[in-house]
Amino acid sequence: MADIIREDQALERACELILAGRPVAVPTETVYGLAADATNGEAVACIYEAKGRPRFNPLIVHVCDRAMAEEIGVFDPVSARLAEEFWPGPLTLVLPLKAGAQVSPLVTAGLDTVGIRMPLGFAARLAARTGRPIAAPSANASGRVSPTTAAAVDAGLGDRIPLIVDGGATAVGVESTIVKVEDGVARLLRPGGVAAEEIEAVIGAPLARGSAKATVEAPGMLASHYAPNTAVRLNATEVRGGEALLAFGPKRIAGAGEAVAVENLSKTGDLREAAASLFSHLAGLDRSGARAIAVEPVPMRGIGEAINDRLARAAAPRDGEEH
């Protein structure tokens, strides 16, 4: 079973494990990540093994500063502007992999690009202290609901990893936004903690949506992902028999009083609050014994795009999903 150590007491132990090639669950501002030395192929393989993650699905590399990022990826002018504006923070940039970069091919899943993020807090300190870029997907079984507390990590992976660093509940609650700039066009590969409108304001142009290629270019692009065991029904206008309710805002849909269980993403309709509570509320309703989870509509504006993306993947058909 994993040791659980408070963030302010865990850095030395976490560094020892990272340098020894072991995976460590760490808090970030988005969700908890399963961290390992991105330069060590055996360590990265431990991430895939612990999560049950398919190896065609690349990992994000977390860095402590721009200098570390530039040792791994090649920045174009637009990506450089985005890094200046949003780093450290919940934005991942998919960049061409720099020739000779000391990153395991398992991290990139054989692609010639690499996703890089400069996080806030413990993950950045871990990269700085070890001097190693840190590969860190979400610290959960692959395809399942991402963890936003140390307890959620422990429930899912506690018997597979040596250490969970407890930094409390994560602030953002959904994963990073992923952007790739290609031929001067910025593409949103995954909505996340930085709203598309914020990025468009910086680059002065609309973001293209989705990948221009048929391959998986970044994490979180599989159709079924972030999924509880219980079926999810989106944009519900009524609660049906035996269902739980994932609510949003002050007004309820028909039949809410008969729901097996109810969790409200934000009683006031605040999208930031909704994002921060999304995965914990999904996980709670998953444990309610309901036959399905009915989800009230969530606006698509701002970070609502990321919330709706996660909900759509949680509701997607499960056949062929990653586990």
TrEMBL record:
A Pfam family this chain is assigned to: Sua5_yciO_yrdC
Enzyme Commission number(s) from the entry: 2.7.7.87
Gene3D superfamilies: DHBP synthase, Threonylcarbamoyl-AMP synthase, C-terminal domain
An example Gene Ontology molecular-function term: double-stranded RNA binding
YrdC-like domain boundaries: 8-194
Enzyme class: transferase
Subcellular location: Cytoplasm
Keyword entries, A-Z: ATP-binding, Cytoplasm, Nucleotide-binding, Nucleotidyltransferase, Transferase, tRNA processing
Any coiled-coil regions, as ranges: none
Zinc-finger as UniProt keyword: no
Positions contributing to ATP binding: 53, 57, 113, 138, 146, 190, 226
InterPro entries, per the entry: DHBP_synth_RibB-like_a/b_dom, Sua5-like_dom, Sua5/YwlC_C, Sua5_C, T(6)A37_SUA5, TC-AMP_synthase_SUA5
Role description: Required for the formation of a threonylcarbamoyl group on adenosine at position 37 (t(6)A37) in tRNAs that read codons beginning with adenine.
Family to which the UniProt record says this protein belongs: Belongs to the SUA5 family.
PANTHER family noted in UniProt: SUA5, THREONYLCARBAMOYL-AMP SYNTHASE
Protein name per its UniProtKB record: Threonylcarbamoyl-AMP synthase
Biological source species: Aquibium oceanicum
